[in-house]
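> tool_call: predict_assembly(chains=two)
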Amino acid sequence: MNNRLQKIFEQEKKILNVYFTAGYPELESTIPIMELLAKHGADIIELGMPYSDPLADGPVIQASSTIALGNGMSIEKLFEQLAAFRENSQLQNTGVILMGYMNPILQYGFEAFCAKASAVGIDGLILPDLPEYEFEKIYGEIIKKYGLNFIFLITPETSEQRIRKLDELSSGFLYAVSSSSTTGSATNKEFVTAYLQRLATYKLSNPILVGFGIKDKESFTMAAEYTSGAIIGSAFIQALGTGKDINEIIPAFLNPIIT
Amino acid sequence: MSVIIDYQKPSVQGYYGDFGGAYIPEMLHANVAELREQYLNIMQEDSFQEEFQALLRDYVGRPTPLFYAARLSEKYNTNIYLKREDLCHTGAHKINNTVGQILLARRLGKTRIIAETGAGQHGVATATVCALKGMQCIVYMGEKDIERQAPNVARMKMLGAEVRPATSGSKTLKDATNEAIRDWINHPQDTHYIIGSVVGPHPYPDMVARFQSVISEEIKKQLQAKTGSELPTHVIACVGGGSNAAGAFYHFLNDVTVKLIAVEAAGEGVQSGKTAATTALGTMGILHGSKSLLMQTADGQVVEPHSISAGLDYPGIGPLHANLFKSGRGIFISATDEEALEAAFMVSKTEGIIPALETAHAFAALDQLIFDKNDQVVICLSGRGDKDLATYMARL
């Protein structure tokens, strides 16, 4: 397994992971957006593979997925775009993970997918609808075989015992959903803080990144106080959706967060 | 010694052969796990069974009759019996399941109920039991279905439910289901999701099939009384997700002499691109939390289905049925929009019963099958046609 993610988390800083949907807003905007994200301070990029029925995502990400699919994005197309991204000087040390749903991957072929992801230089996978039972029975072994990290989600409803199990099965990091909700929902500050404090007491083997509801400097700082950092998704998609030049949008969005 | 295959009960992990399981995001884990651990225990409690059976009898109006359709039998030169689920309170079989699930939800301490609906029958059945038990009810319904099933929308509102439009994708049942699942994710504590068909993550397909199995339980007894044999030669039912078919087939699943015929909606034709004939076109895939047959593109994007009947307008099929299809235990055929409409008028004039558009697909199958004059054919008359009058009137 390459240890790019592990190296990223060894740094003395809070880690910023930015999600966007591959093929959004334009089919060919995937690589330019990745480059700009890396240049302006994203440590990890989470690339969403669009799906027609993204259950774990909210309306903003679903809408971006619909547009990306309309633009012609597919797993095959995405791998074409990603073929040489590690040769891009801007992206050599950036963590890049793929987030998506099981169905399109099964149609592509699960093992073929892992092989290709690994070959182009992907560091890990987030597949929200791959439950741990299926992971342990079938898919985990294939993922490991190709040296990919696999990141499980945990929520405030996940029991301590289950968190420890998912921590054991995960590598790279654990994705803490900051409220038990689809992406883009508002979160309750005190509740989130108590939850993240509780997680910190568990001394898990993986670093924790907080997702869902992070949109700016304030929410990022709050989430990162008790964890290794946070993931921004819907808020960034909304910024991309304004239709302005990505060369302006991305620094304007990231600079206030990382400074 | 031959191996006995059980078509009724899924494995511990919810698999019927290759199909089923629980492909859910972690945000749903606690709710689904709680349900999985408790549903069988609760359903087997004496107090649950007493309350459930009393409501089925006194509120739903069970047992529903098994009617010998003399003129239809003559027309097809065989013996045709109609299982009159259309006579259930609210006009369709859907209430068998909602009565069961509302009692279950209360025992789980839930206070808020959500549901998805296509034709609106499940939405009405859910709104009805919520009113009965004084619980908050939110029904997700595709925007397109809200337009074409206006009477049911009005009924749900009158029963005190909130009807929320699903505006994504094809704006039909699949999208309403997505929205309901999202709602459940956002309300992890107080909410029970009453799924209306034998779809969704385990334990839903099994739980819904068990609640609907009263249909075949009654058919057996009624047929025994009428013919001296509890086994028909054929059971015919329409299939979208497949709840009325699951109920009508359930107690015959392991009696392999009984031919189980599932009729899917071909829409404008199986090869027209505007169809909901899942087994004809579907491939293995994952939708709404279970692995089953699914209409999808080569890239694994779910295809938007089409059927004149909102209740069958779904790109998947329950895992129990996918297993019946793959194993050959079930016979899967389809009827087009046009064939279903003709059948609806034929049944209305032949037997004096106006069937729902969904049910009309089951009757349309009669023209595709060959019967012996001694056959005992049971058709699940899953719902009545009042909700479809606007569509029917356009042809009068």
